[in-house]
Amino acid sequence: MSEITSDGPMPETDPDRDPGHYHLRLYVAGQTAKSVAAMSNLKRFCEEHLAGRYDIEVIDLMQNPQLAAGDQILAIPTLVRRLPSPLKRIIGDLSNTDKVLVGLDIRRRADEL
């Protein structure tokens, strides 16, 4: 796993990137309980379901509030799946694994099967 704390956006395309690779961007506001829970839940989720196929960029809006506009962040914590396309957003502490799997298109909803 690679975790990147960034002051700015990462490149959106990388020609060497595997199409099954997930680029996830987590927006938080400082070290609040929800932000810490979201970071912990995201790391656990990725290790269990995306091992070796993801990178995480953590953006702290307390340090860089202007970065919220790029991904239209209205609530925090918010997880944004930048790659693979299309862009997806999940708001909250990411504690419900099934909702995260469905929200990131890793698992289909039961009613779609």
Description:
There is one protein chain. This protein is an alpha/beta fold and 113 residues long. It has helices spanning 33-49, 97-103, and strands at residues 2-5, 22-28, 54-60, 78-83, 88-91. It has a five-stranded mixed beta sheet, covered by helices on one side. The longest helix has 17 residues, at 33-49. It is globular. Residues 1-15 have low confidence and may be disordered.
Short descriptors:
2 helices, alpha/beta, Glutaredoxin, 5-stranded mixed sheet, 113 residues, disordered N terminus, single chain
What is the helix fraction of residues, given as a range?
10-25%
Dominant shape: globular
Residue stretches low in confidence (pLDDT < 50, at least 5 long) are 1-15
Rg for CA atoms:
13 Å
Structural class: alpha/beta
Q: How many individual β-strands?
A: 5
CATH architectural category = 3-Layer(aba) Sandwich
User: SSE order, as H and E?
Assistant: EEHEEEH
In CATH, what is the class? Answer: Alpha Beta
Our measurement of the CA-to-CA distance between the termini, rounded to an integer number of angstroms, reads 31 Å
Q: Tell me the strand order in the biggest sheet.
A: 1-3-2-4-5
Structure annotation, total helices: 2
Q: What summary fits the major beta sheet? A: 5 strands, mixed
Mean pLDDT: 82
CATH superfamily: Glutaredoxin
Strand residue content = 15-25%
CATH fold call? Glutaredoxin
How many domains make up the 3D coordinates? 1
What is this entry, summarized?
Helices cover 21% and strands 25% of the residues.
Please write out the topology.
Layout: E1 2-5, E2 22-28, H1 33-49, E3 54-60, E4 78-83, E5 88-91, H2 97-103
Parallel strand pairs: 1-3, 2-3
Antiparallel strand pairs: 2-4, 4-5
